[in-house]
Structure prediction request, 243 residues.
Amino acid sequence: MLELPVTEIFSSIQGEGPYVGVRQIFLRLPNCNLSCPYCDTLTSKQPQLRIELESGTQQFKQLDNPVALDKLLGLLETYDFALHHSLSLTGGEPLLWSNELKVLLPLLREKGITIYLETNGTLPEPLLQVLPWIDIISMDIKLPYDDQVFWNVHETFLRYSLQKDVFVKLVVQEDTSLLNLQIARDLIVGVRPLIPTILQPVTPTHGIKAPKPIQLLEWQRFFLEKLSNVRVIPQTHVFMGQL
Ligand code: SF4
Prediction:
């Protein structure tokens, strides 16, 4: 039986994007292929995972990693699927585990839970491996950093995602360049102008500053010149005290 390393499992409220406020089971997987300057997530593989003792209590116990997929399915089934809008696959970058996910996800879908994928949008081929069992895709468009650019891979990923309920999220900060925003906007327009697009002001960290209110207004106007559904939504779970 395949095994999968897990970072944590818990029940909480989705804090980002157009599904903000829905109740989800979060399955966080380790490792990431990027190193975004504003990242504040533990991405390294841990010898033990943590799982809530009881759904929604924020009280955790530790279990050994990695976990056999049948055992992981059993752990997830201790959550009341009817109470939850969906299961959020998050990370790190969960598509790094596509070989394991293409076994686990069909089993979860048989139980009737909606699968919501949070991804950095840079691994289009692994996406294809699991796409049949994904319902909603929250895809980041990463603006260039440290001389790394992702435009081509993002465009391919977004085109593959069109078969599903996809929205795009861009984290913006005070020093975000208008040129990069223009390239990102035009990339989305070139794929499908109706794709919901979220401008997410960065939660200040590592000396990175959030945009000024006037910048957010200007950037939303700029995106709305060519896209029909552009919203500005911060990370609401941070000020709700949610995980
Ligand atoms: S893609 Fe996400 S998890 Fe990976 S480094 Fe960037 S913010 Fe962190």
Notes: The first helix runs from residue 69 to 76.
